[in-house]
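P.,

For your records, the input lines for the assembly:
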Amino acid sequence: MSNNQPSPYHYVRPEVLPMLSSGELFTKADKAPTRASFAKAVIDIGARNPNVVVLDADVSKSIGTNKFAAAYPDRAFNFGIAEQNMFAAAAGMATTGLIPFACTYAVFASMRALDMVRNAIHYPGLNVKIAASHSGITPGPDGVTHQGQEDLSIMRAIANSTVIAPADPDTTTMAIHAVAAYEGPVYLSFTRDPVPKIFTADYPFEIGKAVTVRDGQDVTIVAMRDLTAHALVAAERLAAKGIDARVIDCPTLKPLDTETILAAARETGAVVTAENNVVFGGLGSAVAELLAENLPLPMQRIGVQDTFAESGPYLDLLDKYGLSAPHIAAAAEKVVKRK
Amino acid sequence: MAKVPMSVDELKAMAATIRCDIIEMICTAEAGHPGGSLSATDIVTALYFRLMNIDPANPRWPDRDRFILSKGHACPVWYAALAERGFFAKSHLGTLRRLGSILQGHPDMNKVPGIDMTAGSLGQGLSVGIGMALAGRLQKKDYHVWVIIGDGESQEGSIWEAAMSAAKWKLDNITAILDRNNLQNDWHVDELMPIEPVADKWRAFGWHVVDIDGHDMAAVVAALEDAKERKGGPTLILARTVKGKGVSYMENVCEWHGKAPCKEEADQALEEIRRCSCEQ
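Structure tokens returned:
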């Protein structure tokens, strides 16, 4: 990129820009797990709103909500290893006007307690915030039982659900504040493993809005949660090959920002989706449904295929299971050729 | 509108009226769950016409007592009690399970005035009630939360998660009533998946247990009043009941868990309930 050309990037931290092309983003950039942003933000929100309560299921030390419990002991409820009871109790609290943040791992929130999450929270539309850490295959070393690789798909299938999975620590903080001000059930998905801080304070987080974070004309990469960083790295790899990729960060899976995605698809003519989640029913499916019904064009989905993962270092898992930047870039090249 | 709080004799008469409503609404709907509605009728009647601090004109009054029918399939008894108590017009009862009705096959809190919680998927209501009770304590409100659970429903593991947590927090603003009619959808509870010794189980989980005849109105009222006054922890009222109570051919017959009476059967049922009520 020559110095007199405007940067194609929006809201990306200047210090990480050189790391995108050098490949040092995941080794050199400041990193933090998005669960930590949640744990801090919920204390700030609790300080301002006495109706905010936090419910835990014996993983408060892992998520960091033990700090909320220390700050506001009368508003913290640890239900033990009993997620079903916790989510239904959260529904009961919400009927009285409290704003419960019910916290556990994605596998338990989206599966163990799904009946309560559907029938006691979403069907009545109660104002419960489901805070799920360890989403996708981010709890790398823990292995399959603790890797919530289906949570986004499952939660998207529930009527009237709002599903949010921010890309980095600071946009997670923005999301928590927006969600606290929003009336209704929300599923929030966080990473267990540290992810790079990629966005600036002026990132315009809004529930239901996707944000174009890199301009490009040849292909659109729609990414979410921890794969947005990998999509940005992929865009630099593509640029080196003369392919100009647009990157859209899509922190809200549902409701999907169809306007932004359709406009990008129309302008670039090819689409790749990237999610640390199974390819069934999540972001890739949502975008495929949108395009199939409105604007069929070459598309490919990056995500966990029809398999369970395994224990391993987080970044190695992303490589092995086809989710990292080289895989995203290869998919983009493929769809560009199909145009 | 019925004058409350009612005497035991007035409650008995109201229970008969509600039983007739149940039979009529399920017969008209040609579907529903009469057995478990009739077994819970005396308890629900005592709650709505004697015990509960509620205002039909203001169904979401923040300081009201809460009621949850965790065995949500028995909602005809809840709908009948709410209608008789003036929460909505009795004309709705004839619309049970119809397209567009406020009276869903399982209760929906957003459609029906007075329904404090959507229910239907078993094993959730006690947990919801515990959430309400914890909220009441936090917000320094002195409302009481009443939850009816089924004995078949007690096979759900989440019931015991809830039981454990109410004891942890020493909740004395919640009372669970176990409708112990010993029948579930497929067969007898005690043979299909035994829950006995159920009183000992609840005691072991830290609850105060009161064992009563769930159709003896004076005993029901006394147990509910004692539970509301008792401090220091949660109470379970083990209400021994008869599934299909009040209708001879339904009593203790498993098939009437989820079957509607035809017109002739309904007429017989109404005649039996009214005759029995007159004899009291």
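Two observations worth noting. The mean pLDDT of chain A is 97. The domain at 32-196 of chain A is CATH 3.40.50.970 (Rossmann fold).

Regards
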